[in-house]
């Protein structure tokens, strides 16, 4: 392979996991790397994600892991082949951070914290010669030069290659605001509209229900929803009732399909199994069991443990006649329909869908319309559920873009 020019300089724009990984690959490849970020420090969303326990990746088999990327599984597969879940763990161990696999299969640093990992990583990058430029917001191009807004006014710089790792449009206060979209569209780069992913939804609860149950968790529940393939999918887990809807891990896992249904039909329906530990026959037997002078609510609590927010949901979603019909009530306990009206705003979402379309990139993650400019991370049109899948693909795409830039530099 031809050698990279000794004076080659590459700019990485974006200091999240994808950008930092690209910078590492580039610096190890022998080029000078300047990393720019609009915020005062790098990795802000990464640190926030680790606030409740830094979920790095997932230990499930590779085939199942790859399927978590849904309609983009085929496009993400080359990234994961290059830097999959085990490679992520090995890389973290190389930073001096041990990991463990939780009961759910999720992988965490042993101390559950993001900050020590980020500190070790930044130390490695600085030792490798990466130069960091904070509070530098990318404004696009002036000819071949990159434009940046800085505390000292606008600045320009020219590089041999550029890697864009600017994130999506969730959590704008941490730097991911989607402001890059028109800058790329001006260069004829196809961009799919950004949309919320891993998000909550509005259901327009009644004031009575909302005032009594907002913030209440449903810790033993299953949800059935139609997937992108049009088939029903059932998952058990947890979610939370909000003042105007639903949110939480179980809802996030289904959010891509729900979002698409709302876009197509104006609303989406999920069906709640409020008694997932009991069969439908068992529920029917208990609901129709003679209850004497007890109210139906007391009967449900005694026989099936239905109380609190679950009892409230039945009253919210069923008419008085339906609640008073034992057969209909038993059916509703296993398949209670809840209509979702809207996804919550993108800035509240954990991540975003949409972004630079895959057909706008060549096999090395370079923008076909802008030679020498590569893309990585969440700004590309893919999405994944929480559980380590988002972070793994960000790492892997950053690595792919870094290697793609190194290859391009050897040929130009």
TrEMBL record:
Assigned keywords, A-Z: FAD, Flavoprotein
Where the record annotates domain RsdA/BaiN/AoA(So)-like Rossmann fold-like, the positions are 9-402
Which Pfam families did the record assign?
Answer: HI0933_like, HI0933_like_1st
Query: Is Repeat tagged as a keyword?
Result: no
Tell me if Phosphoprotein is a UniProt keyword of this record: no
Membrane-spanning residues: none
Query: Per its UniProt record, what SUPFAM superfamilies does this chain match?
Result: FAD/NAD(P)-binding domain, HI0933 insert domain-like
Required cofactor(s): FAD
Name of the protein in its database record: TIGR03862 family flavoprotein
Q: Which organism is it from?
A: Massilia rubra
Q: What is the lineage of its organism?
A: Bacteria, Pseudomonadati, Pseudomonadota, Betaproteobacteria, Burkholderiales
């Amino acid at each position: 392979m031809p050698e990279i020019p000794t004076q080659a300089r590459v700019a990485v724009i974006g200091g999240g996991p994808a950008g930092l990984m690209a910078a590492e690959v580039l610096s190890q490849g022998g080029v000078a790397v300047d990393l720019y970020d609009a915020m005062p420090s790098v990795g802000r969303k990464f640190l926030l994600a680790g606030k409740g326990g830094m979920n790095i990746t997932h230990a499930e088999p590779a085939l199942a892991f790859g399927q978590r990327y849904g309609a983009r599984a085929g496009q993400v597969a080359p990234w994961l082949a290059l830097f999959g879940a085990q490679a992520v763990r090995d890389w973290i161990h190389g930073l001096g951070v041990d990991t463990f696999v939780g009961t759910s299969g999720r992988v965490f640093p042993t101390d559950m914290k993001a900050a020590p990992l980020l500190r070790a990583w930044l130390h490695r990058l600085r030792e490798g010669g990466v130069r960091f430029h904070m509070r530098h917001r990318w404004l696009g191009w002036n000819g071949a030069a990159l434009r940046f807004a800085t505390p000292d006014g606008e600045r320009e710089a020219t590089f041999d290659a550029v890697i864009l790792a600017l994130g999506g449009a969730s959590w704008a206060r941490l730097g991911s605001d989607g402001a890059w979209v028109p800058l790329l569209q001006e260069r004829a780069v196809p961009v799919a509209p950004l949309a919320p992913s891993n998000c909550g939804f509005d259901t327009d609860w009644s004031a009575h229900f909302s005032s009594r149950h907002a913030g209440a968790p449903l810790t033993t529940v299953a949800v059935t929803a139609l997937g992108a393939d049009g088939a029903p999918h059932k998952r058990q887990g947890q979610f939370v009732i909000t003042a105007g809807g639903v949110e939480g891990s179980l809802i996030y896992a289904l959010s891509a399909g729900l979002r698409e249904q709302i876009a197509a039909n104006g609303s989406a329906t999920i069906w709640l199994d409020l008694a997932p530990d009991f069969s439908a026959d068992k529920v029917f037997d208990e609901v129709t069991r003679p209850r004497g002078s007890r109210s139906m609510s007391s009967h449900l609590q005694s026989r099936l443990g239905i109380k609190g927010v679950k009892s409230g949901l039945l009253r919210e979603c069923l008419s008085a006649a339906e609640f008073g019909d034992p057969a209909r009530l038993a059916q509703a306990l296993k398949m209670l329909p809840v209509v979702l009206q809207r996804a919550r705003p993108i800035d509240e979402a954990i991540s975003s869908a949409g972004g630079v379309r895959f057909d706008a990139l060549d096999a090395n993650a370079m923008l076909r319309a802008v030679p020498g400019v590569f893309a990585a991370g969440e700004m590309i049109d893919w999405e994944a559920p929480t559980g380590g899948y988002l972070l793994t693909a960000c790492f892997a795409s950053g690595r792919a873009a870094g290697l793609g830039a190194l290859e391009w530099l050897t040929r130009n």
